[in-house]
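Justification of computing resources. Each target in the renewal requires a structure prediction run like the one illustrated here; the chain below, 337 residues long, is used simply to show the kind of job we budget for.
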Amino acid sequence: MSANRRRKLYLTSALVPVVFLLAGSAGGMAWFHFGNPNDTCASCHEMAGTHSAWAGSSHSSLHCRNCHGGSLTLDAHALRAHVNRVVQHFRRAPDQPIHLTEGELLTVHDACRKCHPQSFADWQSSRHSASYARIFLDPTHNHTEQLAPDCLRCHGMFFNGNIEDLVSPCSTTGPWKLIDSAKASQPAIPCLACHRIHSPSAGFRAAQLYVRREHTSFADDVLPSTPLVRGDQPVGASPDPRQRLCMQCHAPNAFRQVGSADDRTPSGVHEGLSCLDCHTSHSNSAKASCAACHPAISHCGIDVGQMDTSFHASASKHNIHTVACGDCHAGQRPAAK
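Resulting structure tokens:
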């Protein structure tokens, strides 16, 4: 046998297992991409809880790849994530759950747009669509309040790191920059901050808060409700569970004073109302809220939408969330006509 023929034979023999390996890998990838999630995703014990939640959710008619992407992809980031899961399978404790990275979460975030275009468009028009640059590179805020780890509790819930890994410097002097410039346009409050895809259909609640420290979401009806006061008088809050979700970020100061810090709890003439009584879901618009409850002309003879409140003009000293009758009527409630 000639040397050239022996070389070809050796090369062919070496390639056979490689071909079988690639064929097996391709077959396995195709199986995961097209197969029933009960036989694919659920075959990993780490995914058991997540799969069970999905199976009982309103998204159970969708395949996993519709939201998480499939295994048949040329996306280097997705392929790296898939390989990393296999590696982590052999390195982590068997009962430790799998968590999405922020990059993987943004893939899910984009998938939301495909099925919920109107809700996504409403979210984009709201302040909740703020980017990392908009939140963390605001000179007015950063000059008056130092950036701290707690900022990530509401702005950057899914960021994999601490505040020092996101912004530099963490001081009130500046100038500030993002450590990773690619994060500048990324949303700091994506869909999954307030929603959970794997929510049970029975008694389904769309609003669920993602808690950064716990790496999981909690339904609004199990979130704590903070008792608020105005001065030393208790303020009644709406029983609407969604109000509790809003209050986790729009929270009062340590003294629980209504309207303090970033609290927006309705009080005064609007005490007891829910945020969603005035604000449209996703867009957060309150443009038509007055007309929903009030006649065009009040008993004062003034269009309520034109009264001196922050609803009419943001510079008004009468915050629409806390305005009381006495704020405009010399400290007295006007007599009914």
